[in-house]
C-alpha cells in the first residue's frame, strides 16, 4: 500500500515539474520526422535550426517579459520544401505567420498571456533562424 502512495506522489510531482518547464518555455512539443535535425531553442529571443527531409511540427511556449509590439524575423536558407513559423495565442488563433515570402512582421503581445511558436515543416531541407525583439 505504501508503494502506491509513493508511486502516485512521484507521478504528481513529475507532472507538475514538466508542466512548469513547459509554461516557462524550457520544453518543446515535437511531432516530426527527419533525416537530420539540429536546433537551438534555448535563446531568449530566437531559435536556429538546421534540418534535412523534415516533416511535421514543433511547438514551444514563448516567454514575453513585457507588453509591446514585437518584430519577428524569419531568416531562411531553404533548398527544398516549405517551412512556416506561426505565433498562436492560448486559443490556438494564429496571430502571425512567417515564411520565406513573408520574412518580417510585428504583433502586439501582452505579458499576461501565453503565446506559442509553432514551426511547420513540409519535406524541407535547409536552415532557419527566427528572432524577435
How would you concisely characterize the structure shown here?
The protein has 133 residues and is an alpha+beta fold.
Order of helix and strand elements from N to C terminus:
HEEEEEEE
Distance between the termini: 53 Å
Quote the CATH topology. Answer: Jelly Rolls
Tell me the domain tally: 1
Total DSSP E strands: 7
Q: Per CATH, which architecture?
A: Sandwich
Shape category: globular
Structural class call reads: alpha+beta
The main pleated sheet reads as: 7 strands, antiparallel
CATH secondary-structure class: Mainly Beta
Task: Estimate the mean pLDDT confidence.
Answer: 90
Task: Write a structural description.
By secondary structure, this protein is α+β, with helices and mostly antiparallel strands. The chain has one domain: Sandwich (Jelly Rolls), CATH 2.60.120.510. The chain has one helix spanning 2-23; strands spanning 28-33, 36-40, 46-62, 68-88, 94-98, 104-109, 115-132.
Keywords:
single chain; 133 residues; Jelly Rolls; 7-stranded antiparallel beta sheet; 1 helix; 59% strand
Layout of SSEs?
Elements: H1 2-23, E1 28-33, E2 36-40, E3 46-62, E4 68-88, E5 94-98, E6 104-109, E7 115-132
Antiparallel strand pairs: 1-3, 2-3, 3-7, 4-5, 4-6, 4-7
